[in-house]
């Protein structure tokens, strides 16, 4: 806080109040409200200059950058339904990816590394659940969480089998390609990182990087799969920025990975953990099935 006061004094902002909101501090001054956020080494000024050069303007105005903090104008957000905000976010994201797309050279080893890492991850999940089930089957009486997992273990194995099958198909599809489509990734996408007033602003660019566009979609799904209808959201995104076949294939492989249901001594939490993993698997399976069915019809 002392460092912020030094900055405020340096710019003669005359603060009236300080409000902490998550990882930012909002300062109200006679000149208006400003947002101070700790830097993590990323040069946001350079990023914003690049985005402007690509005619992308959906970022919070940057007033200045201190050695410790980035300073932004405060945006007074307009309230709206979560579903509408999510749809707007997909359209802003598609614009970001569309306007920052380029193709970079890749080698066989680049794709081989992805293939081998995902194959190892699938094997790790299989071994993890196989060990759990072997332990559960030794019990005279299963706990509710153990019973729930045992009753649905074939669904988990099915997801892993799907992932390996699709990964093999993906590898055959891309192994001879020499270029890969990449974009600026926001890399920290969630519903609260879109602000509305008379314009729309993406905030929290601290983790931006260059990469395949699917990783923004993957991150957003992990954050909000339980509350949003992703079929419509992904379709809205692709209406403006269609994914390539190999991109969509890899995205669905990543989404279909079941994750781990970690047990502890709290039986209530164990039931919640297994239920959430199963909910994720069923919702993701339906998303992929609906997507593939619609593609075939079209």
In short:
By secondary structure, the protein is an alpha+beta fold.
Please supply descriptive tags for the structure shown above.
298 residues; alpha+beta; Phosphorylase Kinase, domain 1; Aminoglycoside 3'-phosphotransferase, Chain: A, domain 2; 2 domains; three-stranded antiparallel β-sheet; 9 helices; 10 strands
Could you please describe the fold and organization of this structure?
The chain is of the alpha+beta class. Helices cover 54% and strands 16% of the residues. It has helices at 2-10, 44-53, 82-99, 108-136, 144-174, 214-224, 230-240, 245-256, 267-297, and strands spanning 15-21, 24-29, 32-38, 62-65, 69-73, 102-105, 179-185, 194-196, 200-202, 209-211. The strands form three sheets. Strands 1-2-3-5-4 form a five-stranded antiparallel beta sheet, covered by helices on one side. A three-stranded antiparallel beta sheet has the order 6-7-10. Strand 2 (24-29) and strand 3 (32-38) form a beta hairpin. Helix 4 (108-136) packs antiparallel against helix 5 and helix 5 (144-174) packs antiparallel against helix 8.
């Amino acid at each position: 806080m002392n460092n912020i006061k030094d900055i405020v004094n340096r710019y003669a902002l005359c603060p009236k109040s300080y409000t902490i909101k998550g990882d930012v501090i909002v300062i109200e001054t006679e000149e208006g409200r400003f947002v101070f956020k700790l830097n993590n080494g990323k040069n946001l000024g350079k990023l914003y200059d690049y985005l402007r050069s690509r005619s992308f303007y959906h970022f919070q105005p940057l007033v200045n950058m201190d050695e410790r903090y980035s300073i932004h104008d405060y945006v007074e957000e307009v309230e709206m339904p979560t579903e509408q905000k999510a749809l707007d976010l997909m359209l802003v994201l598609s614009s970001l990816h569309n306007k920052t797309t380029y193709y970079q050279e890749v080698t066989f080893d680049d794709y081989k590394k992805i293939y081998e890492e995902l194959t190892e991850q699938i094997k790790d999940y299989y071994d993890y659940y196989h060990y759990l089930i072997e332990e559960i089957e030794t019990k005279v009486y299963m706990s509710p969480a153990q019973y729930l997992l045992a009753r649905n273990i074939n669904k988990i194995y099915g997801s892993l089998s799907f992932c390996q099958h699709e990964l093999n198909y993906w590898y055959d599809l891309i192994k001879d390609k020499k270029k890969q489509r990449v974009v600026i990734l926001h890399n920290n996408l969630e519903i609260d990182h879109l602000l509305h007033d008379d314009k729309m602003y993406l905030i929290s660019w601290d983790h931006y990087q260059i990469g395949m566009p699917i990783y923004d979609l993957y991150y957003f799904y992990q954050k909000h799969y339980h509350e949003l209808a992703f079929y419509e959201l992904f379709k809205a995104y692709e209406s403006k920025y269609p994914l390539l076949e190999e991109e969509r294939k890899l995205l669905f492989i990543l989404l279909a990975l079941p994750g781990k249901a970690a047990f502890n001594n709290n039986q209530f939490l164990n039931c919640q953990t297994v239920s959430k993993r199963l909910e994720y698997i069923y919702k993701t399976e339906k998303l992929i099935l609906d997507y593939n069915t619609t593609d075939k019809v079209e």
